[in-house]
Each structure stands twice: as structure tokens, then as C-alpha cells.
């Protein structure tokens, strides 16, 4: 039993008798909820559907669902068949079930449970099953199990008596019983299940059915039922059980939690199913293509709406940026055009060539080496006092010729050295080359003079001595 | 599936498609515009650099024309020669030099310098009482010639001390005037003129 107390992510749902009951997984255990159905019986399916839809929207029905069928809606039969294996086994069971139950296969849905003494088959009308499961299929809920309640209840008895024993499930509300199910067997083996639809025929009718079932069991299996567990409101039996010879009855100890026996029963069923996922179950409803497409469509609509919204936002952002960029490009183009116009205006008349020519002209006229006044200043500053000049020639190609007289040859040499050491423009020599053409001694009136000619070059000579001015 | 739902879904898909196409197209346009903007800015920076150079050139041109005079658009040889001789003669007189001869030389034009070259040969003698004062007069003359606009250059200068009739300095100089001219004049002079050869 301790294993059964472990909660699992499984939802058990049951509806009928004016109530919708759910057993949901919760933190630290399970919670069970009962919703009264106020609509007339024929419209309760819609009410259930609406209630389930509300729960599904809140995300409460995401776990696998076990739908618990009322036991009285099913017909049970133990088929005594030789043990067979393989794929044909279920087909054999179906054929045998159809034969023994006397119901057409097209109208019923079957569920099987293999037992030591044979195969227990449960049948339910497809029309009932369709109606019962309609709220679930409409909402496309993940139904995994469709289990008759009595089967889960039988399995929930973990330490059954070794002799024949039975289970009596009573369904209904305080005013009336809607149905009862009697399950009889030995140990874990379920041999006979008799479902009685009471429709308000309480008391005597139920007792009669119970007695007939017990007698049938005794007659069929040759054993008397020694113990009966009762589930549900047993006040209907208390009035009559004293007068009859029933086996000892006691209430089935249910493991599940809940405020009412029905809630505890549903909680127990959910625990049993979570522990025995391969228990007898009718095939769960197939998802209808239309519903599948509707879910897809809902998701598509959502995704498309999100995409459209995001696309519009992205479009607005991108187009805003685009407008700003266009404006910037326009401004840049305007500025560039203005600049180009100004540049064209400034350079239209070949001003750079003109400036080059004027610069060259300016260099020619403003060069201090071409200015005789500058030369006159530097030469007069450099020459020693023992030398005097009688002729001074300045030529455009940079040649300067000095003719004159000196008191001695040494004075001429001093003059030549002094001229070659004249510096202008931060230490650059004024003359590139200075040499003495001649220095001739002349005596006049007992005085000796040295006549000389010095030639100095302001720039490198292109053709040496070609333009040298010689003494005329 | 209801038709209404289907049309709603189709509408939403269409809106999403159109909006993303819009966003995508705008995004691609933004990319291309950003590239264009980068190119434009680069071009503008380049042009700005050229513009700066052009402005500097323009400024330099103005400075040079202030020094050298505005380029001539029309050239009148007689008038220009007379002007040069007048200026030189004036400078000689102001510097107390007596002009012995003042002879204009052949004029030339220089395509590289974009200027014409007007030369005049001067022979003059100082009239100062002493050689030293005569030298001072020569210095003044050279300074005056330097201040002439358009500027003059002295291409050849010979200064000789003479004793007859009295001690003085004889000056012989070739003074050249460079006058900038406009391209139109240069083009006109550059056009070859060939006289037809007549044959019997």
C-alpha cells in the first residue's frame, strides 16, 4: 500500500449523478474537486464540456486523463478460454465475447483483462461511450484510460481475503440510487460482475438483485461468498440487511483523500491507475482530424498574430530608420553638391597652374641671391679695408665679378677667403665657389698695388667657366 | 474549420507576410542607404580636403597678385615699355643719377611663367660729389627699383668707378620687368602664324 500513496501526474475525471468530479495532481499530494451539474440530464454533457474548457484554459488539464466510467453502464463476462498467444488472441476474445454477450460488435466497445481463470471482458455501448467522452474529445483533452470504476476498485484492495469475497458499489445521491455493481471473486481473481441499473428502485429491488447474484456465484463456482466490501452510501441497505442472510459487510477502506465517498473513490482510482497503467481500459477516443486541425489552426492563428504584430513593429522601426537615413543621405548629397560647386568655382580657371607660375615668378624676383642690393650689402660687409673695388659686375646666371686693387697679395687672399665665408640663410654660404682670376703687382709713384679680379658664383655652374667674364 | 476562421487565418498570415516583407525591404534599403551614406561622407571628406587646398591656393593667388599685379588681359607693348622706362627714369632721377642711355630691348613671353619679359638697358652716372655718396645713390636706386610693382629684376649690373670728368660711379644695368598675363594672351601668342609661300 505505501506505493499507492505516491501521487503521480494523472487526472481522474468522472461525471454523472449531477456532479463532475476531478482528482488532480497537486503539490505534496492530490486534490479532489466536485462541481455540481445544474443542467437537466440531457444537457449535462454541455455543462461538463464548458466546465472542462474553463479548467483547460487555466492549464489544469495538461496531464494524462483517466476517465472513470460508471460500472453500471458496462456489462462484464468471464470468458473461460484456453491460453493463447500471438496477434490472433484478441480477435479470438472479441469473437467469443460477441458470442457470449449476444451483442453486435459494431455497437459495443470491448475491454479485456487476462486472469488465471480466463479473460474478463467488459463491454459498453459505443453510443454511451461517445456521449460520455464527448466533452473530452471536443476539447481534444489527452485521454489515456477509460476505466470502469469497479475494476479500479477491485484492484485497490491490496490484501484481499483468500476465500471468495465481493465488492458492492452503490452509486447515487441522497435521494435515490442510480445504480449498483456487484463484483465477486476469489483472491485477486474477479469472476463475476453484475451491474444493476436501479433508476430509483431502492431497497428491496437491490437486495433481490444482490441475493440472486450471490446465489448465481455459489451455483457457478461452488463457493459461498464469505465477505462483502461496500462502497458508497449504504443506508439503503441497512434497513433490509438485518432481515436477510448476507455475508458480513464492511465499508471498503479507501486510500484516496476526499470529502465524500465519491471523491475518495475517484482519488483511489487515480492512484490505482497510476500504479497499474496496464489495467483494463477501453480504447481511448481517437483525436478527430477536425479537432486536430482546429488546434493547429488555433496555434497558427496565435503564431500568425504574433508574427504580424512583430512584423508591423519591425516594419515601423525599419521604416522610421529608413526615413531618417533618407533625410541624412539627402543632406549629405546637398552638402556634397555645394562643396563640388564651390570646388568647381575655385578650380575652374586652372588656378593651381596659375599659382604655380606666379610662385615661380615670385621666386625669380624675390630671391635674395638675384638681388644686387643684397649682394652689395654682403660683399661690402665682408671685404677687408686693405682692398678696394673699382668694378663690380653682377650677372643673372649667378656670376659676380669684382675687380679692384689691394695693398698686398695677402689682402687679396683675405678678400677671397672672406667672400667664401659669407653666410646667409642659417649658415648656408652665399657663394658656392670663389676664386681669384688674377692678382698682378703694379707700382705707381713708388707705391706697390696688387690689381686683382675675383669671380664668385652664387650657384653651381652648369657649364664651368663658359660664362666667366674675363678682363676686357 | 469554419470559413470565417479560415479567412481570418489567411488574413493574419497575409498581414504577417506583408509586414515582414515591408520590414525586410525597409531593412535592406536601410543597409544600402547606410553604405551610400558612408560613401557620401567619405566623398565629402575628400572634397573638403580638395576644397581646403583650393581655398589655400585662392588665398595664395590673391597674395601673389597683390605682389606681382593682376595678370594682363590685353597687352600694349608701347604703353608698357613707356611705363617701364618712365619708372626707371624716375628712379634714376630720384636717386640723383644721370641717365646716359636708356634703351628698351626686345620683349619676350614665357609660357612657363605665364608672364611677359620687358627689358631695358640703362647706362647712368652718379652725380654726387663723392664716390661714397654716389654709392649711396646707387643703393637708393636699387631700393627704388625693388619697390616697383610689378616687380623688376636686375639681370645684369656693372658698376665701375670712373675718374673723368670727375670721380663717379658708372652704372650699366639690364632691368627686366616681369608682367603676368592671362591665358588668353598666351594662347593668342602661341598660335602659329604662317605666311603663305607664294610661288611663281
What does it look like?
The complex is a heterodimer of chains A (472) and B (200). The longest helix of chain A is centred in the C-terminal third of the chain and has 59 residues, at 289-347. In chain A, the strands form five sheets. Chain A has a five-stranded mixed beta sheet, sandwiched between helices. In chain A, strands 11-10-9-12-13 form a five-stranded mixed beta sheet, with helices on both faces. Chain A has a four-stranded antiparallel beta sheet with strand order 14-15-19-18, with helices on one face. In chain A, a hairpin with a 2-residue loop joins strand 2 and strand 3 (29-36). With 472 residues, chain A is of the alpha+beta class. Chain A contains eleven helices and 19 strands. The relative contact order of chain A is 0.09. Chain A has four domains: 1-157 and 254-286, Nucleotidyltransferase, domain 5; 160-251, 2-Layer Sandwich (Nucleotidyltransferase, domain 5), CATH 3.30.420.40; 288-335; 369-457, General secretion pathway protein M, EpsM (Gyrase A, domain 2, 2-Layer Sandwich). By secondary structure, chain B is of the alpha+beta class. Chain B contains four helices and five strands. In chain B, strands 1, 2, 3, 4 and 5 form a five-stranded antiparallel beta sheet that branches. Chain B starts with a helix and ends in a 10-residue tail after the last helix. Chains A and B meet through helix 8, helix 9, helix 10 and strand 14 of A and helix 1, helix 3, strand 4 and strand 5 of B.
Amino acid at each position: 500500500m505505501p506505493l499507492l500513496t505516491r501521487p503521480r501526474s494523472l487526472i481522474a475525471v468522472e461525471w454523472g449523478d449531477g456532479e463532475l468530479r476531478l482528482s488532480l495532481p497537486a503539490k505534496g499530494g492530490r486534490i479532489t474537486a466536485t462541481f455540481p451539474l445544474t443542467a437537466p440530464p440531457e444537457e449535462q454533457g454541455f455543462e461538463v464540456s464548458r466546465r472542462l474548457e474553463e479548467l483547460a484554459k487555466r492549464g489544469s488539464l495538461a496531464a494524462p486523463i483517466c476517465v472513470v466510467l460508471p460500472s453500471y453502464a458496462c456489462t462484464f463476462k468471464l470468458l473461460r478460454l484456453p491460453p493463447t498467444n500471438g496477434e490472433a488472441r484478441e480477435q479470438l476474445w472479441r469473437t467469443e465475447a460477441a458470442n457470449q454477450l449476444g451483442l453486435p460488435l459494431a455497437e459495443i466497445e470491448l475491454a479485456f483483462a487476462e486472469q488465471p481463470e480466463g479473460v474478463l471482458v467488459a463491454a459498453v455501448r459505443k453510443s454511451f461511450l461517445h456521449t460520455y467522452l464527448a466533452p473530452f474529445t471536443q476539447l481534444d483533452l489527452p485521454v489515456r484510460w477509460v476505466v470502469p470504476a469497479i475494476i479500479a476498485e477491485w484492484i485497490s484492495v491490496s490484501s484481499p481475503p483468500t476465500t471468495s469475497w465481493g465488492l458492492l458499489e452503490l452509486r447515487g445521491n441522497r435521494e435515490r440510487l442510480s445504480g449498483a455493481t456487484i463484483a465477486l471473486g476469489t483472491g485477486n481473481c474477479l469472476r463475476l460482475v453484475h451491474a444493476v441499473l436501479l433508476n430509483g428502485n431502492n431497497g428491496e429491488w437491490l437486495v433481490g438483485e444482490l441475493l440472486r447474484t450471490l446465489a448465481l456465484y455459489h451455483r457457478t463456482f461452488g463457493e459461498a461468498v464469505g465477505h462483502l466490501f461496500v462502497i458508497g452510501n449504504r443506508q439503503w441497505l441497512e434497513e433490509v440487511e438485518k432481515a436477510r442472510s448476507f455475508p458480513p459487510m464492511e465499508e471498503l477502506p479507501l486510500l484516496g483523500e476526499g470529502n465524500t465517498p465519491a471523491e475518495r473513490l475517484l482519488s483511489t482510482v487515480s492512484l490505482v491507475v497510476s500504479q497499474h497503467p496496464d489495467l483494463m481500459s477501453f480504447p481511448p477516443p481517437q483525436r478527430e482530424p477536425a479537432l486536430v486541425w482546429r488546434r493547429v489552426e488555433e496555434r497558427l492563428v496565435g503564431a500568425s498574430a504574433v508574427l504580424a504584430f512583430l512584423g508591423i513593429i519591425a516594419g515601423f522601426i525599419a521604416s522610421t530608420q529608413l526615413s531618417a537615413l533618407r533625410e541624412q543621405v539627402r543632406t549629405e548629397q546637398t552638402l556634397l553638391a555645394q562643396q563640388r560647386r564651390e570646388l568647381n568655382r575655385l578650380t575652374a580657371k586652372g588656378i593651381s597652374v596659375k599659382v604655380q607660375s606666379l610662385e615661380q615668378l615670385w621666386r625669380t624676383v624675390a630671391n635674395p641671391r638675384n638681388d644686387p642690393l643684397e649682394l652689395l650689402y654682403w660683399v661690402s660687409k665682408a671685404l677687408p679695408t686693405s682692398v678696394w673695388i673699382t668694378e663690380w659686375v653682377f650677372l643673372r646666371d649667378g656670376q659676380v665679378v669684382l675687380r679692384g686693387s689691394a695693398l698686398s697679395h695677402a689682402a687679396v687672399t683675405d678678400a677671397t677667403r672672406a667672400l667664401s665665408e659669407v653666410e646667409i640663410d642659417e649658415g648656408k654660404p652665399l657663394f658656392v665657389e670663389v676664386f681669384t682670376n688674377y692678382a698682378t703687382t703694379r707700382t705707381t709713384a713708388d707705391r706697390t698695388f696688387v690689381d686683382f679680379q675675383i669671380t664668385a658664383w652664387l650657384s653651381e655652374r652648369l657649364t664651368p667657366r663658359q660664362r666667366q667674364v674675363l678682363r676686357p | 474549420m469554419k470559413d470565417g476562421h479560415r479567412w481570418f487565418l489567411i488574413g493574419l498570415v497575409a498581414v504577417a507576410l506583408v509586414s515582414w516583407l515591408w520590414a525586410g525591404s525597409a531593412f535592406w534599403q536601410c543597409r544600402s542607404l547606410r553604405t551610400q551614406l558612408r560613401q557620401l561622407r567619405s566623398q565629402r571628406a575628400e572634397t573638403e580636403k580638395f576644397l581646403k587646398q583650393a581655398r589655400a591656393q585662392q588665398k595664395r593667388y590673391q597674395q601673389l597678385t597683390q605682389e606681382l599685379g593682376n595678370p594682363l588681359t590685353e597687352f600694349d607693348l608701347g604703353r608698357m615699355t613707356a611705363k617701364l622706362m618712365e619708372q626707371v627714369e624716375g628712379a634714376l632721377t630720384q636717386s640723383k643719377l644721370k641717365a646716359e642711355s636708356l634703351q628698351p630691348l626686345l620683349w619676350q613671353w614665357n609660357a612657363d611663367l605665364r608672364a611677359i619679359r620687358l627689358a631695358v638697358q640703362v647706362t647712368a652716372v652718379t652725380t654726387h660729389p663723392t664716390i661714397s655718396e654716389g654709392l649711396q645713390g646707387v643703393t637708393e636706386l636699387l631700393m627704388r627699383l625693388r619697390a616697383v610693382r610689378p616687380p623688376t629684376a636686375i639681370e645684369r649690373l656693372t658698376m665701375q668707378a670712373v675718374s673723368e670728368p670727375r670721380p663717379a660711379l658708372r652704372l650699366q644695368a639690364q632691368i627686366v620687368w616681369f608682367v603676368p598675363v592671362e591665358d588668353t594672351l598666351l594662347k593668342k601668342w602661341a598660335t602659329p602664324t604662317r605666311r603663305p609661300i607664294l610661288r611663281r
